[in-house]
Amino acid sequence: MTGMIVMNMEETLMRHTSHDPVTGLPGLPLIRDRLANALQRSRRNGFSLVVLFVDLDGFHLVKDRDGHDIGDRLLKKVAERLAEQIRPGDTLARFANEEFVILCEQIEQPATLSVLADRINEALRQPLECGERQLVVTASVGLAIGNGNTHCVDDLLSHAETAMSAVKEDGGDGWRFFSPGQHDQDQQRLAIVNGLRTAIERNELSIRFQPIVVAESGRIVGAELLLRWNSSEGEIPPAVFIPIAEMTGVIVPIGAWVFRQACLAEADWRRRWGAEAPYVSVNVSPRQLIKESLVEEFAAILRETGADPARLLLEITETALMADVELNLRILRRLTDLGLRVAVDDFGTGYSSLAQLTRLPVAVLKIDRAFVDGLDKRPEHRAVIRAVIGLGRALGLKLVAEGVETDAQCLELRAHGCEFAQGYYFHRPLEEPAFVATLESGLRGGGLPDPALSLYFLIYVSQATPPMSGATLDALREQSRTLNRSTGLTGCLLYQDGLFMQMLEGQREVLSALMDRIKTDPRHRDVRIVIEGLARHRIFLDWGMVVRDLTPGPNEPDFTPWQHRRLSFRDLAEDARTCYVYLTAYAGCGMSEGISVLS
Ligand SMILES: Cc1cc2nc3c(=O)[nH]c(=O)nc-3n(C[C@H](O)[C@H](O)[C@H](O)COP(=O)(O)O)c2cc1C
């Protein structure tokens, strides 16, 4: 009996020295031992082994915000999730802080490792219950493969860590294999961290303004302030230095500097242009959001610069907002109490709970550039864009599409009802003097919309060429729907009693080119324009076709005693306004499905 107690005590002691007390997992010395043994075995059996370095993204935010206790609970939950993903013989260890290491031996097919890495990312994306809170953390995973003949313990651990850092720099939530070139990247990263700390004092930071425009007219209504870093080594792209600044916390002083620049610009522009001055959009990092003093700091900058908070928009990424809604809600309310407005940046890339979104005091959704870019390449991106626009409109939010680069993207976004846009198609990021000149030349033009971008509409009627079978109508619908979507035309085509009536809306040149084709289409004749002209805004979000068969339907009233003359589309065409009212009544009647057959 006594012997057993002694043994248990010894075991507990062992566990405390070699195991991590928070998660109960092996600690650093033990994993090094196991890795050394595994390398020896691999020398004998010839199999490769892999080290996965798993680092939780944004864990420091959770710990800073919620304290060590919640942080520890989260680590425990993460350890459990990770343990569920690995094979019985694999080793899972806590390496340090929010870093875990997994060792898998006897790798026969390295390709299967990508499945494991995917599984780990996916498992961690699911919310974790930590006491009262539901927390979401993602992970950056680096993989290094090796064997006892070519690698030592330190090689594998440092390679896996380097690969993990590369994932982090790409925004985290992913995995990557180590490649030798990444060593140089590691060195570069170190230089960036050191350089960033002194970038403000050394006057190395500068700003650009990328105009935000009304998608239909191109009129500039705002500008996003973008940061540039001209380091002593040359220009470092924001995609490289921002994630590093975020990771190291240097983003906090830089963020305050950027907010001050935004305020100075707002105050200056309002002095120049009064009510016509564009608003200024500025990014706020999650690291800034958790600083208790942020609100006081912003309030002081607003006072000092005399900026109008209502004309400043704080852009916060969807991922940062959703990481902890309760805490963000508190801070955002205080920021909006100052009069500032909030936009959800990169919308569509995170894991928003819609219920949570409606609770946040948000005024604008910025649609992520990846979806805009995929509009003409990936059908699912088109579906996301439509859903986001529909959601934004339903919630009464303004929508800004980011990264608009082509005519077709712009037309399609407008067709779906996205009001504002930003991207190279309109303007590149500009230095302030160039921005001022661009805006002034727009104002000198009386602020009139660019005629090439003007929105036109048109209604015509025509006589169908018989026979018009269901198949002919189907073919016409499919052809027109595809073409109209790609050219940004919206509207509605009606077919009734052998006559067509169609309303089309879109860019003037596109519309007139289509009308040239429609007029000579043998499927109909006697095309007569009822009305055409400038439109204030679009009525339809898409293009659809309604076929109405006028043989009486079972639920219709009996019209036979009705003696008056039946009006055809030809008769309706006498009155443009009636045509307009009749056609636009179909807006929103399932146009996006392309057809509704009424009988
Ligand atoms: C009544 C009617 C309505 C039409 N509506 C459209 C339309 O909205 N969009 C469209 O691209 N084509 C429409 N078409 C088809 C065009 O006339 C033409 O066939 C099509 O644009 C392809 O032209 P293409 O073969 O010269 O490229 C319509 C044709 C008819 C008969």
UniProtKB/TrEMBL annotation:
Against InterPro entries, the record matches this protein to: Acylphosphatase-like_dom_sf, Biofilm_reg_signaling, BLUF_domain, EAL_dom, EAL_sf, GGDEF_dom, Nucleotide_cyclase, Rev_trsase/Diguanyl_cyclase
Residue ranges constituting the EAL domain according to the UniProt record: 189-443
The record ties this protein, via Pfam families, to: BLUF, EAL, GGDEF
Domain of life according to the entry: Bacteria
Task: Write out the GO MF terms.
Answer: blue light photoreceptor activity; FAD binding
Q: Which parts of the sequence belong to the GGDEF domain?
A: 47-180
Gene3D superfamilies on file: 3.30.70.100, 3.30.70.270, EAL domain (3.20.20.450)
Residues of the BLUF domain: 455-546
* Annotated keywords: Repeat
What is the designated name of this protein? Diguanylate cyclase (GGDEF)-like protein
Which organism is this entry from? Thiobaca trueperi
- Taxonomic classification: Bacteria, Pseudomonadati, Pseudomonadota, Gammaproteobacteria, Chromatiales
